[in-house]
Amino acid sequence: LWASAGVARDTVSSTVLVLNLTLPGRGPMVTALAVNAEAGLPARFTLGQVQHYLGDERISGVCSPSNVFICENPSVVEAAADTLESRSAPLICVEGRPSVAACLLIQEMQNAGAVLRYHGDFDWAGLAIAKPLIGTGALPWRFGASDYRNGLARNTRLKRLFPPSYLVETPWDHGLAVEMLEHCISVEEEVVTEDLLYDLTCEED
């Protein structure tokens, strides 16, 4: 919000966590991404590094990875790195509400023609995070009513949600809001990580 209002901010506090994401062009961020992706290691980049890439390193007209997955929690990134290593599809983690760095990188992926797929926690905050991302072009990734029901069936730690004081809407799947309001139980990403890893698995040549 401060950034959108033009208020001065530092370029190192805002960061974005990624796994196996590579970008066209040249320069420090491109090189660091490639090295970490080859090793299957998560990498974190500052707003300044993202801005530097957007200003000086990228090559206009060159497509980014065709599919980029977006998750809410770092635990998914850690599980993908531990289990899949370099075989994981490109993954960006917003770590709650997306930082300025994350927003810029996601927007760049979208501008370059990547198909974005988002998954988050099934709770009120998770829906609030998902709504603008899906509303601006990302596709829901296992984030519908049937996915919530499947998560409920496997949820061993029931975390009840207080009924919200505002209208809950899930335009990408209206049934999701209905189901969550009926049960008022959260399903965190950790519960369905195995399913997410299945989707992230890239077949080796």
Overall average residue pLDDT:
91
Q: In what order do the strands lie side by side in the largest sheet?
A: 2-1-4-3-5-6
- H/E element string? EHEHEHEHEHEHEHEH
Low-confidence sequence ranges: none
Radius of gyration: 17 Å
Give a structural overview:
- The protein is α/β, with parallel strands linked by helices and 205 residues long.
- The chain contains eight helices and eight strands.
- The protein has a six-stranded mixed sheet. The protein has a two-stranded antiparallel ribbon with strand order 7-8.
- α3 (74-83) links the parallel β3 (67-71) and β4.
- α3 crosses α8 (193-200) and α6 (145-154) runs parallel beside α7 (174-183).
- It is globular, with a radius of gyration of 17 Å.
- The N and C termini lie far apart (44 Å).
Topology overview:
Layout: E1 15-19, H1 28-39, E2 42-46, H2 47-57, E3 67-71, H3 74-83, E4 91-93, H4 100-111, E5 115-118, H5 124-135, E6 139-140, H6 145-154, E7 159-160, H7 174-183, E8 185-186, H8 193-200
Parallel strand pairs: 3-4, 3-5, 5-6
Antiparallel strand pairs: 1-2, 1-4, 7-8
Helix pairs in contact: 2-4, 3-8, 6-7
Features:
globular; six-stranded mixed sheet; 205 residues; 8 helices
Give the gist of this structure.
With 205 residues, this protein is of the alpha/beta class. It contains eight helices and eight strands. The chain has a six-stranded mixed sheet. It has a two-stranded antiparallel ribbon with strand order 7-8.
